[in-house]
Task: inverse folding
């Protein structure tokens, strides 16, 4: 597992490591610090935005486990382990829950053991794969071993879709949903410039300078990604407004550039 570190490119910023740096983690390099600092100069609210994106994942995972009885999850674009991870959230509701994590960043792979500390009743697995190759995910031994396709699955696509350019976005999401049974769920966050277009536009330009082009979507485009699914209340909203808790009190809409929603597969 740790041999993957040989593939880590420390000369170019990486989205997972920039995210880690801005949220106060320690698994990043100077190039990621420089990129993150530049982005925060463009938009000082970026740390709040990133934190609320992760909190959406916590709430959505807990909601699916607690309110809908989902006991198996597929988490695409996992990122660096930052507690609580998805399995800690859902196993806190139901210890028997199973989670398959997917990411293609070598530094995430190098730290994947932190993602595999499951409750004894449940299980976790890590797949080194790219969302651009959904068949590699769905055909992996880890997915096949942990996921029972006769039971509902929670597909989590959190904080990654803005790095997937149209028209690949809808195609890839649909391919991942295709084998999942009726009654499965999609929880997804989608980057937008609807609320602070100038600041977010400058952040997107900085990402592009670092070799990470972004696709920011307005509300109609974000909503269209859920076509054919049954959106659950409150529909597609800024992430801090989706079933908010006390931690979301007082957050300014201008600090959030991400839509989020949960939808059911008919």
Result:
């Amino acid at each position: 597992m740790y041999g993957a570190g040989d593939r880590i490119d420390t000369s170019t910023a990486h989205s997972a490591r920039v995210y880690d740096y801005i949220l106060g983690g320690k698994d990043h390099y100077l190039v990621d610090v420089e990129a993150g600092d530049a982005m925060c100069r463009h938009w000082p609210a970026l740390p709040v935005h990133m934190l609320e994106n992760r909190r959406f994942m916590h709430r959505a995972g807990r909601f699916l486990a607690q309110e809908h009885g989902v006991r198996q999850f597929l988490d695409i674009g996992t990122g660096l382990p930052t507690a609580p991870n998805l399995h800690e959230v859902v196993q806190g509701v139901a210890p028997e829950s199973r989670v398959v994590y997917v990411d293609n960043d070598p530094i995430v792979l190098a730290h994947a053991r932190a993602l595999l500390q499951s409750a004894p009743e449940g299980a976790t697995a890590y797949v080194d794969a790219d969302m651009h190759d959904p068949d590699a995910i769905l055909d992996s031994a880890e997915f096949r071993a942990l996921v029972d396709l006769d039971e509902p699955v929670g597909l989590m696509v959190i904080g990654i879709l803005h790095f997937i350019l149209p028209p690949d976005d809808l195609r890839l999401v649909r391919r991942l949903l295709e084998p999942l049974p009726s009654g499965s769920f999609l929880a997804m966050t989608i980057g937008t410039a609807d609320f602070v277009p100038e600041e977010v536009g400058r952040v997107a330009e900085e990402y592009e300078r670092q070799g990470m082009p972004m696709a920011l979507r307005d509300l109609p485009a974000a909503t269209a990604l859920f076509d054919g699914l049954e959106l659950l209340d409150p529909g597609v909203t800024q992430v801090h407004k989706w079933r908010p808790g006390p931690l979301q009190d007082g957050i300014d809409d201008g600090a959030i550039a991400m839509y989020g929603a949960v939808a059911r597969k008919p």
Remarks:
- The first strand starts at residue 72 and ends at 76.
